[in-house]
Here is the input.
Amino acid sequence: MNLELYEILMREILINIDEGIHFIDNKGKTIIYNDCMEKIEKMSKTYVMSKSFMDIVDEMNIKNSTLLEVLNKKKTIENNMQRYVDKNGKEITTLNTTIPIINGNDFIGALEISKDITTIETLSEQVTNLKNNLTNKENKSGGRYKFEDIIGNSKLMKASIKKCEKASKSDASVFIYGETGTGKELISQSIHYDSNRNEHPFIAQNCAALPESLFEGILFGTIKGGFTGAVDRPGLFEQANKGTLLLDEINSMPMTLQAKLLRVLQEGYVRRVGGTNNIPVDVRVIATTNESPTEILNENKIRRDLYYRLNVINIEIPPLRERKEDISLLCDMFIKKYNKKLNKNVKGISYDSINYLKKHTWQGNVRELENVIYSTMSMMDNEKNIVPEMIHLNDYYHLKEKKINDDYSLDDLEYKTLDHIIGDIEEGYIIESLEKTGYNVSKAAAILGINRQNLQYKMKKYNIKNFNK
Here is the structure.
């Protein structure tokens, strides 16, 4: 590639990339300041390049500038969250990676790549506040799950409930393993509300639902003055003080944060991001995972020392396919629920329908069964009972039940084309991967072996909504 073409290409990249790029030489002079960085910091390129970066830092009141730190120490700083006030007085939050540029033995300067996450953080704070409000309303209104809300007469389910009831009498940490849709949060709430902590908060957080850059602040809180623009905000540990904190999908928590979580559990205090004071907390932690402990340990998805700290009481929730005798009771409960919600008067479900449902493998467990009943009742008129002809199981799970060497009949496939069948299976695997990762598109794409853009295209193709947005 000739130099002229290379320069054209680099210019187009700098103009169109959605990350801010700022490069200063070894004397602090700005050499590159792209359009995206202009939008983030609300400063013109001409103005920035006419001044020393040290002056810009003073004007914008930036503490602990990562560019200056790399300029002085010549060491890379990765994924650093920085808050400061732009020239218009608006607080912004960026996620920065800053690297020293070295040519041989010569230090050329420092390059910073910034992503504006102000909106993401604001939404995250709103979600946290909404969660607090819902928790407070729940505590006042009595809307909470208890053991009597758990449906199941099977031996496996009774054994799990009995263990949970014993766990509620202790303050020890609990580690719950159950497939997606088995009711891990229902079990966790029941343990809390049957314990001596039941007058204090129960707070749940899905560890796969938050960006790594924001997780620490949400978990441990932030302190005003710790960095420019920071506000005093208690983290989930402080909010759950004297109560219970549920960390759902603990295997999705970043390793660096797992180490800090372990310290909190061992020492009984938190330190807010940007702060120096230790804040005592008394929180019982319940951790859940939808992957087996052996799997997450072997794949290094959880620190062993953290796992052993959390796994004081171990509870495994059986999947629905291992307790099919509970299907009839669950159906009765869901029929009552959706009669009220849909203003219907469905009397019940036929014996043949129950037998039909028992033949299904229920990869989505109780949640899938509830959706099937909801879908069926939504399409009913004034029928008294649910009969097999009304029930439509998910094509993906239905096809997955069959062995590879089974003969598919045209009746089973409802005269669908091969492309349609393959599409059903592909859609099912995408949904399952998204559910497994808490709708983290990057992680789901990695599981499926495709890139993020390809997965986003397929989600749009199958009209699969991202529940993290």
In short: The CA atoms of residues 157 and 354 lie 19 Å apart. The domain at 119-318 is CATH 3.40.50.300 (Rossmann fold). Confidence is low (pLDDT under 50) at residues 137-142, 226-230, 395-416. The first strand starts at residue 20 and ends at 25.
